[in-house]
Known about the structure:
Blueprint: H1 2-31, H2 36-52, H3 59-64, H4 73-97, H5 103-125, H6 139-171, H7 180-201, E1 212-213, E2 219-220, H8 221-227, H9 229-250, H10 255-296, H11 316-332, H12 334-347, H13 360-379, H14 382-391, H15 412-431, H16 438-452, H17 461-528, H18 540-571, H19 574-596, H20 598-604, H21 611-642, H22 650-675, H23 682-686, H24 689-709, H25 714-747
Antiparallel strand pairs: 1-2
Membrane topology: Multi-pass membrane protein
Protein name: Phosphate transporter
Subcellular location: Membrane
Amino acid sequence: MLIALAVLAIADLVVGVSNDAVNFLNSAIGSKAISFKTIMIVASFGIAAGALFSSGMMEVARKGIFNPGEFYFDEIMFIFMAVMITDILLLDFFNTLGMPTSTTVSIVFELLGAAVAMSLIKIGADNGSFIDVINYINNDKAVQIIFGILLSVVVAFTIGAMVQWVSRLLLSYNFEKKPTWVGALFGGFALSSMTYFILMKGIGGTAFAGESYDLIGGITIKEFLETQLFALVGANFLVWSTFSFILMKFANVNIYKLIIGVGTFALALAFAGNDLVNFIGVPIAAWQSYEAWLASGVEASEFSMGILAKKVPTPTLLLFIAGMVMVLTLWFSSKAKSVVKTSIDLSSQEDTKERFQPNFLSRGLVRLAISLSTVLTNAIPSSLQEKIDKQFNKPVIALSKKKVHELPAFDMVRAAVNLMVAGILISIATSYKLPLSTTYVTFMVAMGTSLADRAWGAESAVYRVAGVLNVIGGWFGTAIIAFIASGIILTLISFGKGAALAVLLFAAILLLARNYISHNKKAKELKAEDSLNRAESSSIQGVIFESAMNISNVLKRTNKIYTNTINGLAKQDVNLLKKNKKQGEKLSNEIDDLRDHIFYFIKNLDENSVGASNFYINTLGYLTDIAQSLEYIGKVSHKHVNNNHKKLKYNQIKELKQIDLKLEEILNQTQDAFSNQSFEQIGNVLSQKQELFQMVSEKIQTQVARTRTEESSPKNTTLYFSLLLETKDLMTSVMNLLQQYHNEHDSSVAPATIESPKK
């Protein structure tokens, strides 16, 4: 069990860091204030320091949720095993989805679920009453933790929104042009709050913080930090404000970058100090339980675990090893980047590819917010409203200097506020010994600042609100799933003993391996796939080149999707048709994404190349028609086979295959022409247009005759005509696209002069 727990602890550290990296990386990466390498180095130092200072937090796993004196050694070990198996599977599941969840909530409800299940088993064996469960659970502490976590969601969102609104009102988006003293005061306030935060979460967690010193009035360092709050923060504010002014005035330092760097270190330290217990607290408690039982010489089923109620320090070596595992995971985990992306996308100031679809709740909340905004706007004098709006006006960014994907998700003011507010809230909660989830706080602060910063505009509000609701729903799902799953696993271990434990561990390893392989496979597929790229050139020549690459990719995928459809119908292969249908939908979504980018494309054009917009828009129109035809062909084919309708007749399949082979020949020639920029070949392809259309028309006439004389299945006739007519539409779109390129090539650019747009 101890060996298994040690292995699970390392695995839990890996999946835990992958999930919680969003807490401290979000603001720095989103603002692009400092380089990614610098961010990672700063965060690594923060994690290493926080891990060494986290000893005092380990008590949550030993006595924070249940009363250890009510359980025997073997029962405690069953609880710890159930918790670790559940935790690692649950966190890995959320990481695979790219959704941030709370490691604090998961460990709390897993401990609660396992402890309740074990209590019920003990009560059942003794013929006791269900109400006796309260004797086994540390009710006061458990309720305090749960309500503290839930309250932090509302408080973090509200405070984040208020502070961001005030900060933007004072600094506007032109914050770098403000007088030096304005930036110095902001820097003083932010850095002083973060310094206190680092002291509370760093020094406050060390062993010597509990010792008294004459220099500070004979009280402990921790008591001094908690009682001298205003004096410490006031002194810090004066020192940091002066320091900020000197740096800005004489060293030309960007104080906002310094704030973001210090804030990233502070939150990384807090994460390691506060959340390390979620990953290794249970295995360490199990090891300490084992040592106590071994020294007692009593049977495992008779040794009471009341010893866990005492304060037991955690060996520094174990904390150091845990810190190193966390740092390595931070650098090498691809899942961590996936979770960070979700949070950044939801708080982005610019339009992004929205991950979440709106629902009735998000639409209702947005409508309510619009109504309230209208009421408030009418209540505020128009002159004052104009002044406020002026501070929130975003500067126009010249896209010719920066590509859209290179723009930061939000500016440095919002990044600084995110880090500052999260740090203040966590340090206040720590000083009052209030438990909270660092994930909930940092995420909800980021969402609150996004709302106040008007990042959720008419274009994106319903998607962003839906995303936040999905994440919050996932948090509640975490609590419920953790409680139930942990209780079930505990029950299986309790009754099945070693055999059940072996099966569960084997199942956990299989699931983790499967998720890891699946995630890597998806990542490789995304990297290798012929995905479509947004046109970002500012000249007609560049647009022709970039569009040619996209068209080549679309035609390659069109060929594959169409052929798979015919093969799937011939073999009645429902799985192939289902997969093929998804590929058609995916292609359609990618082209929709290109259409959504038209606004930025037109903004990016040179004055002399505005005509390129018409060319690009027409190209996208033809690509859309191609994708819609493929999507329809895939959908009706899958529906026919999935509903177990009659198989198409041999002659029908043969005729469709003839069309497929001819279409494949034309698409291959066209793809080569676009891939190699040999646009003179397009004329050769266009000369075959009539032959292809004639072939389809003949098949339609043949099926009409067949229907009148021998066809007996209405469903087959409907499907066959649908395929032929949609194939005709597909070919029309392809030929129109080729004609446009052929005309543009003849009238503007010789093949030899077309070059790749400069990077």
